[in-house]
Design a protein that fits this description.
about 325 residues, alpha/beta, Cobalt-precorrin-4 Transmethylase, domain 1, Rossmann fold, 3 domains, 5-stranded parallel sheet, 4-stranded parallel sheet, 12 strands, binds iron/sulfur cluster
């Protein structure tokens, strides 16, 4: 009996194994931040203003824009309005809610509760008379938000092990460290070890500040990195946790690792000689973009997909109370 044309096409395409890292993609903080914008639009109507990209993903931002969200970088771009102004998941310096209040803007804070926890730690250390070392990346909005919880000069940013080796505090007996939530687990452990060796009295968080989602996504990509010839990370170039996934894949034995925003970015020549490809996604990348990549692979290859799960995640965060109450409450 003649085979169907679909079977014929399948036979012509080269075989490709796909290992899908799990967990991947949306975390609880991103999920909550997007829900906040959507609920605000449903409850208060458009426009809803959002300071900074609500999460670092262009697809998410464009989808929310289409529903009536207006994205700005600073509050002075927002006209006087009764409509809500939402602060992004990355957190904001204290000056931002104060400025919103002074203009009588109605603000809703979508800061991830795990970023807020770091703000609280930094404020507590400051109140107890310690100088704060913040391990993180200069210019990232989360770093600006955490630094901006305290008066100027209270926080020193350490980006690298070299910074940790050369840092000279005024009083080594009154030091504490906090970290950005989306760092490399391994790099951060190295930096913390240097700080503890040089400043044995330094105080740190009870549990690391790097969040569960960052930790789990890095562990999942490590589990597949040694088995694949190419790792594709779906995410945005300004997404810290996505960039870290590329580094972790490379350092864990994968010969090639790349970041792409969408299927249209796939650099096909990199697939030459690759029998197994690994796929993961940063915490701000929706699963629909992973599906899009799988569809693009399926159009060129006869793919067989295996999911490699290293952790189960059941964390969810409530949205703020003002969005849980009905409009006329
Ligand atoms: Fe929160 Fe972590 Fe997600 Fe950032 S990556 S929004 S800290 S859960």
């Amino acid at each position: 009996m003649a085979s169907s044309s679909a079977e014929h096409d399948q036979a012509k395409r080269p075989a490709l194994n796909v290992l899908l890292a799990a967990p991947r993609g949306f975390c609880a903080g991103v999920d909550r931040a997007i829900q906040i914008v959507e609920l605000a639009l449903a409850k208060f109507g458009a426009p809803v203003y959002v300071r900074h990209e609500i999460v670092h993903n262009r697809y998410v931002v464009e989808s929310l824009k289409a529903k009536g969200a207006v994205f700005v970088e600073e509050l002075d771009e927002i006209p006087d309005t009764d409509q809500p102004v939402i602060f992004s998941a990355h957190g904001v310096p204290k000056s931002v809610p104060l400025a919103a209040k002074s203009r009588n803007l109605f603000s809703i804070d979508a800061t991830c509760p795990l970023v807020f926890k770091v703000h609280t730690e930094a404020s507590r250390h400051h109140a107890e008379g310690r100088k704060i070392v913040l391990i993180g990346h200069a210019g990232h909005p989360e770093v600006e938000g955490t630094t901006g919880q305290l008066p100027p000069g209270s926080v020193t940013l350490i980006e690298t092990a070299a910074d940790a080796e050369t840092f000279e505090p005024e009083d080594a007996s009154r030091l504490a460290y906090v970290t950005q939530t989306t760092l490399s687990v391994d790099d951060t452990a190295d930096i913390v070890a240097i700080l503890k060796r040089r400043f044995p009295a330094i105080v740190g968080p009870h549990k690391e500040d790097i969040c569960y989602a960052t930790t789990n996504r890095q562990a999942a990509v490590k589990a597949i990195a040694g088995k694949v010839g190419l790792t594709i990370v779906v995410g945005a170039p300004n997404s810290s946790n996505s960039l870290r996934l590329v580094e972790v894949a490379e350092r864990s034995g994968c010969p090639k690792a790349i970041l792409i925003q969408r299927a249209s970015d796939i650099p096909w020549p990199l697939f030459d000689g690759v029998e197994t490809v690994g796929i993961t996604a940063g915490a701000s990348a929706p699963e629909t973009l992973v599906d899009e990549v799988l569809d693009a692979l399926n159009a060129r290859f006869a793919i067989s997909v295996e999911q490699v799960r290293t952790a189960n995640e059941r964390i969810a965060f409530n949205v703020p109370r003002e969005l849980r109450e009905p409009a006329d409450a």
